[in-house]
Write a structure and sequence with these properties.
By secondary structure, the chain is of the alpha+beta class. Helices cover 47% and strands 15% of the residues. It has five domains: 190 residues, Hypothetical protein af1432, CATH 1.10.3210.10; 141 residues, Beta Polymerase, domain 2 (2-Layer Sandwich), CATH 3.30.460; 112 residues, Ubiquitin-like (UB roll); 79 residues, no CATH class; 78 residues, ACT domain (Alpha-Beta Plaits). The termini are far apart. It binds manganese (II) ion.
Length: 751
């Protein structure tokens, strides 16, 4: 347990002293090795046994201790301690879980078959057949051959799970064994330290978690983190220590209020302070890319009450005390976790806006939360098996069945991963194949996981048959279908949301090689297609058209412009129009150009819809139209609404996830309507107010509404929404203007 208990029924000024000073924080001191005192350790161990075992059992366990000490005589651990200190520590952990005498005996003897010349038969003779089987089971796990790392991991897992299916106690001994080895890892070589830690994180911690051995699970993670990332561990430990100082006052106030409130509502409760483990803080920072100061909820309280109704009563009382953070409440009592864990979780907003996490549970739930399947070990007959043990037993039985069906280790592992790694999501391909991805993975990660080519060419996705943005986070059981286009290419913006290393690496790789020439060819192809749409051919453009285009616009070479098109930095349709305009008039007018980049559009012919005329800053959506490529509309385009119902531009077409590039530069055409009082010179005043913002007015039309007012329709070239907002604001200030608005649908347009 991490924290001292504070009982609200005690009439001390509870909360006045912050609970965190006196607590053992989850920070493991660097020097963990006080020299062992065997006599004292043995005495302590035996004292624990007296709490729940009969004297004759204790005598047998003590005999096993002396047997083992004798067998290991002359052997020492890397730390220099006598070897017997290790089995003793393992047995003590099991005693803490209240395991039976056979398991404790086996724990004391768990290394004798491996490290001394004692045989299984000898153990069976002296300590019984069951104990001998347990020792044998643990020894077999120690003897795993290592091939490649992945192969070894898969095989390790399979053996562990099967051993566990035969008798869970084998795994409990093995886990206690690993815990002690991890606690004493300082004494071994750094390379071995890292290997053992990684193995602990990948195999032992997930198993502990699946069995509900929560305290063990956390400690294994913490120790592994400390040994694999010693520097980060130290830095984080230091940050937590100083944050604790800074936030003490706020936490103390919350604690004080909580401790006072519960008895006032007739709820008897025990309140404990708890701190998040460094590993979970680290993981949160890494996965959500947060800095330490952004990880606020490093404090919490655990509230233990008498029964289930009190859990909900306490929850209500505390929600009345401080505001809960929306979306943080979880009812694991109604819906327990797969490992049997039950609690109510909520996060309150304390003083200074500091979030404080609360866990509310009964005493029994607390036991299960701490030691999972090992809790209630004493009730071994079927009738008193609790729900957790029953479901665990079922799960283990299913492993044995699975083993018969799939003798291949890797395949076997795939099947059991679903419950062992809650940090992953499992999704389906349209063919029903299951893929595991990191939690938080998006449709783009999925596309790359299926095949690099699918990733590189994906333009849209369907999740459970519905069109969704490519950046959508996937959930367990989602059926994901990727829409590809032959000329599509990865978008640099994807790097902002993909989670998998593979997707990231492939996108980078593609963009890099793309720069080197392939893109120019693609750009030429796209430009030719765009010209074709306008009724022209690339070949018919003379060098003078190119010459004029290059001189008046970009200052780049023809090859560079084509490369830009291929990379999606320039829209082929716009370059095409400018080339044609340039041929006719010297290139002074054109509707829009520049570096427009729209996520998801790379490599496709693309146009901005003429109905709603999107400008940067507008939420947009793309629709593929045969012969025209990708048409980009605003989300609220009136034509699109019709389309959604099955007619219009969107009907039966593919919806594409698109977004503006941060670097998208105009000008972009936009239509605004101004209603002004009829007065001489009003058009001139409007035009000059607009022109002050360095805007081209490409078209003006007027409608005489009545005698008193005129509606004017301006087509403007703007840089984006901000630019437009400034224009609208200054036009609105003119005294003659009664109304001004942007039009998303052009009623006046004749074509
Ligand atoms: Mn051992």
């Amino acid at each position: 347990m991490l924290a001292a208990s504070l009982s609200p029924s005690v009439s001390s000024p509870a909360g006045a002293a912050a609970p965190f000073d006196s607590d053992a924080p989850p920070i493991i001191p660097v020097d963990m090795h006080p020299p062992v005192d065997l006599a004292e350790d043995l005495e302590h161990f035996l004292a624990q046994l007296h709490a729940y075992l009969k004297q004759e059992d204790i005598d047998q366990i003590e005999a096993a201790y002396h047997f083992s000490a004798n067998a290991h005589r002359g052997q020492f651990r890397s730390s220099g301690d006598p070897y017997i200190s290790h089995p003793l520590a393992v047995a003590e952990t099991l005693a803490h879980w209240r395991l039976d005498p056979q398991a404790l005996t086996a724990a004391l003897l768990h290394d004798v078959m491996e490290d001394t010349n004692i045989t299984k038969a000898q153990i069976a003779q002296d300590f019984g057949k069951v104990t001998a089987e347990l020792v044998d089971g643990v020894s077999k796990l120690d003897r795993l051959e290592h091939q490649s790392y992945e192969e070894a991991q898969a095989e390790n897992f399979r053996k562990m799970l099967l051993a566990m299916a035969q008798d869970v106690r084998v795994i409990l001994i093995k886990l206690a064994d690993r815990l002690h080895n991890m606690r004493t890892l300082d004494a071994v070589r750094p390379d071995k330290r890292r290997r053992v830690s990684r193995e602990t994180l990948e195999i032992y911690a997930p198993i502990a978690n699946r069995l509900g051995l929560n305290t063990l699970y956390r400690e294994l993670q913490e120790l592994s983190f400390r040994n694999t990332n010693p520097l980060r561990y130290r830095v984080l430990a230091k940050a937590v220590r100083s944050a604790r100082g800074n936030r003490r006052e706020g936490v103390g106030k919350v604690l004080e209020a909580v401790v006072a409130r519960l008895p006032a509502c007739q709820i008897k409760a025990e309140v404990m302070g708890r701190e998040k483990h460094l590993y979970s803080i680290y993981r949160k920072m890494r996965d959500k890319r947060l800095s330490f100061s952004q990880v606020l909820d490093i404090y919490g309280f655990r509230i233990i009450v008498a029964d289930v109704p009190s859990c909900y009563l306490a929850l209500g009382a505390l929600h009345g005390l401080f505001k809960p953070l929306p979306g943080k409440f979880k009812d694991y009592i109604a819906i327990p976790k797969v490992n049997g864990y039950q609690s109510l979780h909520t996060t309150l907003i304390g003083p200074y806006g500091m979030p404080v996490e609360l866990q509310i549970r009964t005493r029994e739930m607390h036991h299960v939360a701490e030691s999972g399947v090992a809790s209630h070990w004493l009730y071994k007959d079927e009738d008193t098996l609790n729900e957790l043990q029953r479901t665990t037993h079922q799960w283990l039985q299913s492993l044995i069945d699975l083993q018969t069906a799939t003798p291949d280790s890797a395949e076997f592992l795939e099947h059991v991963k679903v419950d062992l790694f809650p940090g992953e999501v499992y999704v389906f391909t349209p063919a029903g194949k299951i893929l595991s991805l990191r939690r938080g993975a998006t449709a783009v990660d999925f596309a790359y996981a299926v095949h690099t080519d699918i990733g590189n060419r994906c333009i849209a996705c369907k999740i459970n048959h519905e069109h969704m943005p490519l950046r959508t986070e996937l959930r367990n059981g989602d059926r994901v279908e990727i829409v590809t286009a032959p000329n599509a290419a990865p978008n640099p913006n994807w790097l902002g949301f993909v989670k998998s290393g593979k997707a990231r690496a492939q996108i980078r790789h593609f963009l890099k090689t793309r720069q080197n020439g392939e893109s120019a060819a693609l750009g030429e192809h796209l430009l030719s297609q765009a010209l074709h749409n306008l009724g022209h051919r690339l070949e018919e453009l003379g060098s003078s058209a190119w010459h004029r285009f290059l001189r008046t616009f970009s200052g780049k070479t023809q090859k560079e412009v084509l490369t830009d098109i291929g990379l999606g930095k320039r829209l082929p349709a716009i370059v095409a129009r400018r080339l044609l305009d340039g041929r006719a008039s010297g290139g002074s007018v054109a509707q829009s150009a520049g570096a427009i980049r729209i996520a998801g559009s790379q490599g496709m012919a693309m146009q901005l819809a003429r109905c709603c005329r999107p400008i940067p800053g507008d939420p947009i959506v793309g629709i593929i139209k045969a012969g025209q490529g990708l048409i980009v509309h605003t989300h609220d385009c009136p034509n699109l609404r019709i389309g959604k119902a099955g007619r219009g531009p969107g009907g039966g077409k593919e919806w594409i996830d698109v977004e503006w590039d941060a670097a998208a530069a105009g000008p972009f055409e936009v239509l605004i309507m101004v209603v002004a009082q009829n007065a001489p010179g009003v058009l001139g005043r409007l035009a000059s107010a607009i022109a002050e913002h360095e805007v081209n007015i490409t078209d003006v039309r007027m409608d005489n509404d009545s005698g008193a007012t005129t509606s004017l329709y301006f087509t403007l070239q703007v840089g984006g929404r901000m630019h437009l907002a400034r224009i609208l604001k200054s036009v609105r200030r003119l005294p003659a203007v009664t109304r001004i608005s942007r039009l998303k649908e052009d009623h006046t347009q004749r074509n």
